[in-house]
Amino acid sequence: xxxxxxxxxxxxxxxxxxxxxxxxxxxxxxxxxxxxxxxxxxxxxxxxxxxxxxxxxxxxxxxxxxxxxxxxxxxxxxxxxxxxxxxxxxxxxxxxxxxxxxxxxxxxxxxxxxxxxxxxxxxxxxxxxxxxxxxxxxxxxxxxxxxxxxxxxxxxxxxxxxxxxxxxxxxxxxxxxxxxxxxxxxxxxxxxxxxxxxxxxxxxxxxxxxxxxxxxxxxxxxxxxxxxxxxxxxxxxxxxxxxxxxxxxxxxxxxxxxxxxxxxxxxxxxxxxxxxxxxxxxxxxxxxxxxxxxxxxxxxxxxxxxxxxxxxxxxxxxxxxxxxxxxxxxxxxxxxxxxxxxxxxxxxxxxxxxxxxxxxxxxxxxxxxxxxxxxxxxxxxxxxxxxxxxxxxxxx
Length: 396
Ligand code: AMP
Known about the structure:
Blueprint: E1 13-17, H1 34-49, E2 52-56, H2 75-82, E3 87-89, H3 95-102, E4 109-112, H4 119-123, H5 126-133, E5 138-141, E6 165-167, H6 169-182, E7 189-193, H7 202-208, E8 214-217, H8 222-228, E9 232-233, H9 243-255, E10 259-261, E11 265-269, E12 278-282, E13 285-286, E14 291-295, H10 297-309, E15 312-316, H11 329-343, E16 347-350, H12 354-361, E17 370-371, H13 375-382, H14 388-394
Helix pairs in contact: 1-2, 8-9, 10-11
The structure holds adenosine monophosphate (AMP).
């Protein structure tokens, strides 16, 4: 498959799967246009070459043709971002889009109605995918956020474009960034895993242990490891039934010569509240009725040093309850450390769930090498899975 850069789209009708699943307010105005802007380079490349674009996306999870979830709501925002008029088809398959697509001229953009108005989108309907494919002569997938779903528009449709498909700029960048960690990471490679639960990260840990040299385990999930090793964790969050698993992970890491770094001290609170009383204590001596909600100063220093040693850094999950200001300092200190290492030449990738929210909230998104746009898709990639939307592009 060719890269989008090398393809000339002159006179081509290009069906592009974008991710326009954007948040809307009560007046159906787009409140965050990040995803629309993220699709812009691919759309402009096709238009500049002299092709036309037929854009398709889902919006929300409608269970019927609910007007609340109409993509008509985003037309004006899309026009603002692209700086051109956008045509809209109130159906995504059938007579209306077929006629509009037929008369579409080079330089024009047509947006199709919400794909999820048809249940065949999520069930991966072959006939539905074929109807979508009949609108165009080239297919681009630029929706990383849905690449882990074997849906009609993300996966099934690709088979109707033999030798006429490619990834868009956004999806290509996501794949390249994940490969920079999972396949060709410059050593030493560091993974930082935080967040609330070990259980949600087990598969990632198992999959990355072969690829990394250092593993930082922070945030709520670290307490299961500390308790499993005999530490006193007070009322800190802990998955009691995952303690054996935690010990097995530590053993496996040792076998694979991965150095594991756990917090050494913690900011403990006497309540899960921003106004709680707090004190710094050793990670394995947290008193009864107190819970660890953020990193302590020694931990910040240790983690800072590890981050500076590494050439490739993957970060998933906050190191404390960053949503509450008094417990955000460990996550901020880690973001600063990663920004510093990135500035000194390391490659840093942030992705999956809450770490992206944290990174954006504290303004680190411009200071790391790449912030992934896909929560679930990113997590499944790190688990070592081949995403159906990506696999479908390599078959003819
Ligand atoms: P996850 O979705 O697994 O990445 O978890 C993210 C959540 O973990 C965030 O909402 C944090 O507030 C929470 N978290 C991080 N550290 C702690 C902690 N020490 N105690 C309780 N929750 C935590």
